[in-house]
Design a protein that fits this description.
Number of strands: 15
Shape: elongated
Bound molecules: adenosine-5'-diphosphate, magnesium ion
Number of domains: 2
Largest sheet: 6 strands, parallel
Order of helices and strands: EHHEHEHEHHEEHEHEHHEEEEHEHEHEHH
Length: 394
């Protein structure tokens, strides 16, 4: 990797500020309901503690709009992290200020301190230099392990690197290497599967994957727009009528008719979203008048499975149907199982996609489930992430 990591610096006896992504779901009682993101940074924390560093953790949680809000306190995360680490995790009720300073000053090697939500301060998202310098003053070294926030230039992801030596943590390293390899040197055949509601969110990624992948399988709402661009009548389905030209030019880029882009040949349709009970599977040219498409059909799933079976590398982003609704989730859940069972390196990105993977019960059966939705797509667009650019070069 081009950037320095934890392994490249001395950490013994240091106070290390680690920016993590602890933006986890909480229930009504404030208990952590999914600790995947906490577990994902344990290797970095445990490495530092084992080598005699004290760890100061900072994260955002939710969207508190720049002021303290009990709904978004990180306190429950400190409790869950303590259970996972098997040691006490101290908590400071602020990210900067006298309490945070005192708590940081008193840390001994092997201690862990979690600061309160950095987004309780408007200065965080404004990348305010003074706020960044106050965060930096708590520590001797900065580690960024918050891949999910690396596409944002905030005080705790970018600003702080002006005041401390800054390196990547192990999760950041793994994300950059795994996703980076998809663009630089994937084992082939490389099959990419893209879904989700709209083309508009993912035009750049689609362009990039059309260049890099051997096959691009397209499902979900965005497939409707591609099909409409080919002249099919999608009836009441979600279609971005202002993106038909974009869809046509993406298809042209792939080389017309060479089969590298695989679109649905059949769809699961219903008169409306709330009528999954009368859903039926039809070819793309037989959607009943006034009905909409909410999932890929059986034939399409078979077609996708054929390509996936030949793959040595698979990347998947975006559900291929309206998977939140029972009855329209079959395509997505079956696809998840097929990808998980494939004899290939399997890399999954996107918040909804990972949720689908979990619902299919195969989240631990893939090579890498990225912790960063937006960040993973930005990286696949071939863009440098500000939070990564700010780290020291090797
Ligand atoms: P991710 O979060 O994994 O990047 P997206 O947010 O891009 O995925 O896409 C997920 C959304 O796309 C889901 O809310 C899903 O309901 C929607 N979607 C997928 N297929 C369709 C469809 N045929 N019609 C409408 N919405 C769809
Ligand atoms: Mg999403």
């Amino acid at each position: 990797m081009a950037k320095k990591t934890l392994r490249d610096v001395e950490v013994k006896g240091k106070k290390v500020f680690v920016r993590v992504d602890f933006n986890v779901p909480l229930d009504q009682q404030g208990k952590v309901t999914d600790d995947t993101r906490i577990r994902a940074v344990l290797p970095t924390i445990e490495y530092l503690l084992a080598r005699g560093a004290a760890v100061i953790l900072a994260s955002h949680l939710g969207r508190p709009k720049g002021r303290p809000d009990v709904r978004f306190t990180l306190r429950p995360v400190a409790a869950r992290l303590g259970e996972l680490l098997g040691r006490e995790v101290l908590f400071a009720g602020e990210a900067v200020g006298p309490d945070a300073e005192t708590a940081a000053r008193q840390l001994r090697p092997g201690d862990v301190l979690l600061l309160e939500n950095v987004r309780f301060y408007p200065e965080e998202e404004n990348n305010d230099p003074e706020f960044a310098s106050k965060l930096a003053a708590l520590a001797d070294l900065y580690v960024n392990d918050a891949f999910g926030t690396a596409h944002r230039a905030h005080a705790s992801t970018v600003g702080i690197t002006a005041y401390l030596p800054a390196v990547a943590g192990f999760l950041m390293e793994k994300e950059l290497e795994t996703l980076g390899r998809l663009l630089s040197n994937p084992e082939r055949p490389f099959v990419a599967v893209i879904g989700g509601a709209k083309i508009s969110d993912k035009i750049k990624v689609l362009e990039r994957l059309i260049e890099k992948a051997d096959f691009l399988l397209i499902g979900g709402g965005m497939a409707n727009t591609f099909l409409a661009a080919q002249g099919y009548n999608l009836q009441a389905s979600l279609v971005e009528t202002d993106k038909l030209d974009v869809a046509r030019s993406l298809l042209a880029k792939a080389g017309a008719g060479d089969g590298r882009v695989v679109l649905p040949v059949d769809l699961v349709v219903a008169p409306e979203l709330g009528r999954a009970d009368v859903r039926t599977n039809v070819p793309v040219d037989r959607i009943p008048a006034g009905w909409g498409a909410f999932d890929i059909g059986d034939e399409t799933l078979n077609l996708f499975a054929e390509k996936l079976a030949t793959a040595r590398t698979i990347f998947w982003n975006g559900p291929v149907g309206l998977f939140e609704v029972v009855g329209f989730d079959t395509g997505t859940l079956e696809l998840a199982k097929k990808i998980a069972a494939a004899d290939a390196t399997t890399v999954i990105g996107g918040g909804d996609t990972i949720a689908a993977l979990k619902r299919a019960g195969v989240a631990d059966k893939v090579t890498h489930a990225s912790t960063g939705g937006g960040a993973s797509l930005k990286l696949l667009e071939g863009r440098e992430l500000p939070g990564v650019a700010a780290l020291q070069d090797r």
